[in-house]
Amino acid sequence: MQELPPLVAACLRRPTPYTPVWLMRQAGRYLPEYRRLKGRYSFLEMCKTPELAAEITLLPLRKFDLDGAILFSDLLLPLEAMGLEIRYPQGGGPVVANPVGDRRSVEALEVDGALERLQPVLEAVEMVREALPPRVALIGFAGAPFTLASYAVEGGGSRSYSLVKGFMYADPEGFGMLMERISRVIGAFLRAQASAGCQVLQLFDSWAGALSPADYRRYALPWTRRAIEGLEVPLIHFSTGTGGFLELIASAGGEVIGVDWRIDLGEAWGRIGYERAIQGNLDPATLLAPRDAIEEATKEILRRAGGRAGHIFNLGHGVLPDTPEANVGFLVDLVHRLTEDGG
Q: What would be the CATH architecture of the domain defined by 6-76+120-148+184-342?
């Protein structure tokens, strides 16, 4: 029987030879090779061309001893597959040119055929899986229903989330229709990524922290649960700004709960229960610091993990664009060295 990759074993809380480590946005703008490609191709071209997406996914694996390769893609591709026009202006976040604002626009979203329009992503999965060594797990991902609904309604990033919350409060049934459509597409997309070769999946609920606990329980949790039910590979459920209702996040599902840097990892693990694995949670800005500061912060997180099976080391969010490449390699090697054989 083939031995599980350390990352997959950790998701299942099985013993591993060291604490596995990967980083969100590890194939991003801090790498000069990525910046060169971005100078030649648009962001959407890179996401939708399987050969390019596979090449970018593999870039950091050629440099660092990472335990996971997360597929290079974008959270908003499923929304585009449902009929929304997504633009990626230079120097800014994504913009939805035709945002959803009422039931009529919700009903116009195209659920049937959405998965077929995401086929280039699945082709990239197959390419990457073939290229990866057996010990490195391939991670697929999707945005959670509330986060994608927020983009769809707000038309982009937001500080107040007033449009999506206004829709949610004024027309709960219409908002439920939107969440149902998105959760159906996301569920199918996650299952398809697993079938194509992803051994782990991650659900990003980047904007769940905009909700109160009561609103998360009513408007988001049921649809998140629906999107991730029936998966046949481990799921990492990651959210930001949700330290106040982490137990609710865990109750929505996921073998692993990913936490941001705003909560102590040991406290978070105790609250979600040690029967689940946990992922996190170094502040991404720490990688801008001198190496002694990186080492001190890393040791503290590992101390809080207590050597239990089921800890996956990661940042509390994505690698920042101005992160020195050498510091990424230092962190990955440090985590392995400090934890190898229980070190």
A: Alpha-Beta Barrel (3.20)
